[in-house]
Write a structure and sequence with these properties.
It is built from four helices and ten strands; from the N terminus they run αααββββββαββββ. The protein is of the alpha+beta class. The strands form two sheets. Strands 1, 2, 3, 4, 5, 6, 7 and 10 form an eight-stranded antiparallel β-sheet that branches. It has a two-stranded antiparallel sheet with strand order 8-9. A hairpin with a 5-residue loop joins strand 2 and strand 3. Helix 2 packs across helix 3. Pfam families: FKBP_C.
Length: 255
Amino acid sequence: MGMAMQLNHLQVFLPYSTRKRYISSQNAILVKFTSQKCCAERNQSQSETQSEQQQEEKTNNNAERKESRRRMQADSTDWIASSLTRRFGIGAGLAWFAFLAFGVISEQIKTRLEVSQEQQNIRDVENTQEVVLSNGIKYVDLRVGGGSSPKTGDLVVIGLQGKVKSTGNVFVDTFSGRKSSLAFLFGIRPYTKGICEGLEYVIKTMKTGGKRKAVIPPELGFGKTGADLDGDILIPPEATLEYVVELQKVSIPPS
């Protein structure tokens, strides 16, 4: 814009021939400047495109290298065994497999030792004391466990007896032998039949191998509606519940 104003100003004072040459030279400069600017922008765009392509190639190469390492690790055991066999004979290959077997056995021994340690920590409670929680739940430890406590999402296996306190009607019982232990994902709803929110409060502070007797108030049991279990077992509304629960196993759920 400034150059155009200067050019109009000069047109007033310069002769026609001079003015014409001056205009031509200025137009040439503008054309050259515009061409250089477009070229620079085009080069910048190409540079950015090349940079993006290089980054994408780098990412793909990294992924290929990771996949290659994974395959190499998966094949390493067989490769080592076959290489040792070819070079040193079948005895070396057998020795390698024996080494792997020793690792597996070591893990099994470690697991058994951990289980043995848990069992050693399990103990019956002689002088029971009732614990009263702020939410109204009451429980007594009959046996203190020695294993791990459940976390949300863990696969939990329990032995359970539940009954309505006011009537004594039993609505679930796995200790009698007629029903197997209950397995469920801890903290995940809907609950397995016979299990309520209050019972989870009781279980979450137990350890594997532990056993408790608990009293659950109606608001943490089946509330104002009660429950219909298996069609012929009814839990009345506003029922206080009594449970005996044994935490038998805590493990990571299968994927």
